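2024-03-11 09:14:02 INFO worker-7 job=invfold-0412 stage=load source=structure_tokens
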């Protein structure tokens, strides 16, 4: 059975065509830097490794490119759209409505749209992917896997905000957590690697969006993102943690509208606001050239991650391993080094030579004397989505 997985992020779309249950990847690729004149479209099979830099103005354009490539008879992947029986979609915000993988119908689409106000950089693109897939693959089962589902296990003491109770009980204002598919996948890989089911793990997902999860006994018990995917770590264009009084100062004293402040904090802040660049690869390159704004932004980014490691180590009453994953976490040896430097009090010591190595599997980058394992684990949200969607389809 062929399962197409569409994973729409805030500035990218990852996709894989996977044969299930063998888990063989037939085709994979990515559209990244969406909205840029230098967007990148990649397409990879056993026989083809294609990459093109071009202007891709929005997610819809990117989704059409993916569909065209998959159905191109020259690639001989599928004879027609009916061969794809399942399309699995990553959906960022499911609120309390969805605690597990779900078959998409009209009511589900309406709820995803309703929750777009809480995840404006993601849910609209997730829904767009669903609607387009329904047109292109009308015979396929469309299945949603929600980022928030893994974090349903966070206890009330960690997910409830210190505001009047009615907002929690009547309006469901709470920590929901995000990137759950990724955190679940790498946490399970770490547990298998450590051979310790009750391991205390801190997973660090670093991409354009960034988050951290405290994992105990394989379950999420705390998470850096909250009611929306906006707080916590410094991200590509999102500010992360900020004193909420700044919002009122921007509105009441500086004269900005609420819409302007919302756009400022979500689309114009983070690394973009600090440096003029949203992509860490550009920021690292500029930092190496001596760009002081980029150097400081890297330091701020690492410092914020360090603080969460300390907090989650306290919450877990110890830590067996910290895991770096996602595009930045897997590929930026420089940021990993900045995070793990001067952390020996917690028993975290990095091996510089191991940190520079590349691998597609789980790898340790800690010293032999380190009390805490430092693991780099490539995430595979697409495989996790395929497994969950196939399981729902087959009742397994």
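2024-03-11 09:14:09 INFO worker-7 stage=emit residues=396
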């Amino acid at each position: 059975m062929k399962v197409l997985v569409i994973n729409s992020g805030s500035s990218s779309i990852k996709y894989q065509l996977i044969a299930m249950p063998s888990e063989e990847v037939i085709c994979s690729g990515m559209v990244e830097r969406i909205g840029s004149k230098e967007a990148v479209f990649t397409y990879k099979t056993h026989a083809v490794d294609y990459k093109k830099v071009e202007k891709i103005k929005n997610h819809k354009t990117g989704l059409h490119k993916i569909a065209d490539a998959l159905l191109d008879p020259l690639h001989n992947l599928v004879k027609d759209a009916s061969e794809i029986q399942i399309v699995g979609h990553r959906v960022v915000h499911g609120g309390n409505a969805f605690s597990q993988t779900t078959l998409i119908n009209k009511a589900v689409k309406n709820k995803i749209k309703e929750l777009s106000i809480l995840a404006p950089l993601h849910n609209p693109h997730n829904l767009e992917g669903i609607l387009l897939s329904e047109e292109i693959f009308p015979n396929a089962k469309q299945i949603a896997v929600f980022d928030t589902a893994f974090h349903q296990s966070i206890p009330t003491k960690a997910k409830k905000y210190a505001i009047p109770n009615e907002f929690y009980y009547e309006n469901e204002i709470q920590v929901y957590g995000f990137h759950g598919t990724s955190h679940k996948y790498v946490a399970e890989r770490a547990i298998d690697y450590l051979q310790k089911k009750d391991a205390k793990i801190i997973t660090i997902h670093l991409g354009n969006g960034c988050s951290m999860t405290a994992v105990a006994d394989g379950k999420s018990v705390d998470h850096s993102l909250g009611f929306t995917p906006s707080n916590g770590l410094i991200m590509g264009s999102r500010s992360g943690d900020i004193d909420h009084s700044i919002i009122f100062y921007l509105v009441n004293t500086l004269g900005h509208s609420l819409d302007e402040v919302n756009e400022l904090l979500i689309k114009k802040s983070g690394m973009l606001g600090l440096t003029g660049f949203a992509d860490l690869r550009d920021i690292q390159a500029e930092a190496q050239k001596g760009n002081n704004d980029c150097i400081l932004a890297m330091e701020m980014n690492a410092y914020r991650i360090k603080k969460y490691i300390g907090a989650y180590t306290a919450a877990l009453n110890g830590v067996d391993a910290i895991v770096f994953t996602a595009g930045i976490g897997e590929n930026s040896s420089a940021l990993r080094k900045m995070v793990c430097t001067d952390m020996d009090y917690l028993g975290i010591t990095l091996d510089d030579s191991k940190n520079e190595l590349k691998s597609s599997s789980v790898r340790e980058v800690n010293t032999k004397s380190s009390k805490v394992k430092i693991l780099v684990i490539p995430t595979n949200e697409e495989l996790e989505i395929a497994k969950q969607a196939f399981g729902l389809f087959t009742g397994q």
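2024-03-11 09:14:09 INFO worker-7 stage=report msg="The first helix runs from residue 59 to 71."
2024-03-11 09:14:10 INFO worker-7 job finished
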